[in-house]
Amino acid sequence: MSLISHLSALVGATFADLGLDPSLGAVVPSNRPELAQFQCNGAMAAAKAVGRPPREIAEDVARALDMATDLKSVDVAGPGFINLTLTDEALAAWAQSMADADRLGVDPVEEPLTVVVDYAGPNVAKAMHVGHLRATIIGDSLARLFDFVGHKVIRDPHFGDWGLQMGLVIAELERRHPDWPYFDPDFTGPYPEESPVTLDDLQEIYPVASARAKEDAEFAEAARRATVELQRKRPGYLALWQHMRAVSMEDQRANFSDLGVDFDIWHGESDVADMLEPLVERLRESGVAEESEGALIVRVDEPGDKKEIPPLILVNRAGGYLYSTTDVATIWYRSEQLGADLALYVVDARQADHFTQVFRAARRASVAGNMQMEHIAFGTMNGPDGKPFKTREGGVVSLRDLIEMVEKAAMARLDEAQIATDYPPEERQRIAHQVGIAALKFGDLHANRTSDYVFDLDRFSSFEGKTGPYLQYAAVRIRSLLRKAQERDLAEGAVLPPQVEAERNLVLELLQFPEAVWRAVDTRCPHHLAEYAYGLAGVFNRFYDACHVLSEPDADRQASWLTLCRLTLDTLVRSLYLLGIEVPERM
RNA sequence: GCCCGCGUAGCUCAGGGGAUAGAGCAACCGCCUCCUAAGCGGUAGGUCGCAGGUUCGAAUCCUGCCGCGGGCGCCA
């Protein structure tokens, strides 16, 4: 149990003794650190219910708590704040038990769920760009968090590979190369082994095809027809599609690898291709789906709706399936085949209506079983001008270029500060990579998930202040310190009651790790953990300044500090791991 | 038009109904004979968009207005 839940239980019990709701005993870190370490605001909330002055209730609670041995002081302040401060002995004991435990005080969930985390959402028709960054980083962190607290996590990028975007590219290729065997209905194969389309081709073709469809209705129709034929697995189209999918996925895997992001199942829309027809039939037979204007739709509007929710289109007029269709089928798959209890969709907030439709349609179709579904929405990443992040030329920035930019900036910093000049080039390169990625990820994760945010490249080239590298730096300094301690045969020892403020603050911060983790998990907002990690790094840096570990003359104190340093390192590294950030051995 | 989100220091952002609204950057002033200065300390900077309301208490909840962004049947 964490310190704060222990305190909450303690104070809650005294509320209960007074005949009040024990949940009133919730304890939080004090927002007036000069007065106390923790506070409980329950007396004021209780006042109305019992019709007694809040101060009186608070004093009753405080009197009962006075017996508690761990508490150095219990005071009532202002209108009825109950201020708590622990004894230094108690803090030391808590820190010791955290240092001895193997999960840093975070108890695993009692009932693990199978949780599908659907994030990244790369599109086979185009290279990953900055727009995919947030989904990837936030989703990856959530997956790590859910895994850490004991759930069974299935990470799935859900490639966009079975919709109109493929038909657009196929139609454009057919327009350009009508002689290719892929387009000859009489061709019996075999098709070439080598892909006729490179990654660069793909990146050039998709925007062109997409633009053409907007102004040329005939071409748009051809693209829709091609989509339908692909979905019906016309051999030539399927062969071409397989080439393009392989080319695109190879690139995307490399991107994910650069970001340190991995998946458990590398599925896409096409993985449920064979479920689409059964799904449609099932819905048609049960009457859930109906014809409308030549399309097959599922009505999903409900009486209490504040706005009009348009029907979900299951099959379009051309007979093609849409991403709505594959999304519903994927719910069926995840519920039935994967046995998932929860599915988290880490997708741009602009798709909120789409998920409302899909989730409702899945319920109406009874394909979700007991699986809960949540749209984990996030805001748009804008450039410094407040508009969606673009290059000066107006194009989107590819993920690859972005990663290269932050790596270069990190390397420049190494050169400029003449750091690690004697390291092997490979290690310097690796450090620059880890530091650059940390800047990128932390820059994304420290902001609230739901609001739009501004991506400013300049902010990622200084590496000072509230940045990923600041956190890495704190951890690296501890590693260096512990290495030196080992060289001098200094061992960790029992945690002693803290004597100075910097030491006490470090212990207090360490003990709040479980709350940070749970807050991030419960709200599905990794930035709460990012805030915590930043706070912990700051508190450690102040401790590092104030308490000179290696030159401490008192051997017991020194041994205690070494334990605190080790515990801080473990907590920092764990926090950063949960944010998807690696810590170099040195930097 | 309807719906969703946002509006907090010059800039970028935290802020869990509670006490005196916090960081980082930028500005200015300090700290390396000392475990990594990618660090630490300090100064300055605020009508929390505006107006009402609920509450003992509102940046936080509710209503209206203003501003910005986004979504609104055959794209993903």
Write a brief structural summary:
With 587 residues, the protein is α/β, with parallel strands linked by helices. The protein has 19 helices and 13 strands.
Q: What would you note in describing this structure?
A:
The chain is an alpha/beta fold and 587 residues long. The chain has four domains: 3-86, 2-Layer Sandwich (Gyrase A, domain 2), CATH 3.30.1360; 164-259, no CATH class; 270-366, no CATH class; 399-578, Isoleucyl-tRNA Synthetase, Domain 1 (Orthogonal Bundle), CATH 1.10.730.10. The chain is 51% helix and 10% strand. The chain contains 19 helices and 13 strands. It has a four-stranded antiparallel β-sheet with strand order 1-2-4-3. A four-stranded parallel β-sheet has the order 6-5-10-11, with helices on both faces. Helix 5 (131-148) links the parallel strand 5 (114-118) and strand 6. Helix 4 (88-100) packs across helix 19 and helix 13 packs across helix 14 (425-445). 45% of the residues are buried. The protein binds one RNA strand of 76 nucleotides through helix 2, helix 6, strand 9, helix 12 and strand 13.
Number of strands: 13
- What amount of the residues lies in strands? 5-15%
- CATH architectural grouping of the largest domain: Orthogonal Bundle
Distance between the termini: 35 Å
Quote the CATH topology of the largest domain.
Isoleucyl-tRNA Synthetase, Domain 1
Write the layout of secondary structure elements.
Elements: H1 3-17, E1 27-29, E2 38-40, H2 42-50, H3 54-65, E3 71-77, E4 81-86, H4 88-100, E5 114-118, H5 131-148, E6 152-156, H6 164-176, H7 199-215, H8 217-231, H9 235-259, H10 273-285, E7 289-292, E8 295-298, E9 312-315, H11 323-336, E10 342-348, H12 352-364, E11 372-378, E12 381-382, H13 399-416, H14 425-445, E13 453-454, H15 468-487, H16 501-510, H17 513-523, H18 527-546, H19 555-578
Parallel strand pairs: 5-6, 5-10, 10-11, 12-13
Antiparallel strand pairs: 1-2, 2-4, 3-4, 7-8, 8-9
Helix pairs in contact: 2-3, 4-16, 4-19, 6-7, 6-8, 7-8, 8-9, 10-11, 11-12, 13-14, 15-18, 15-19, 16-18, 16-19, 17-18, 18-19
The structure holds one RNA strand of 76 nucleotides.
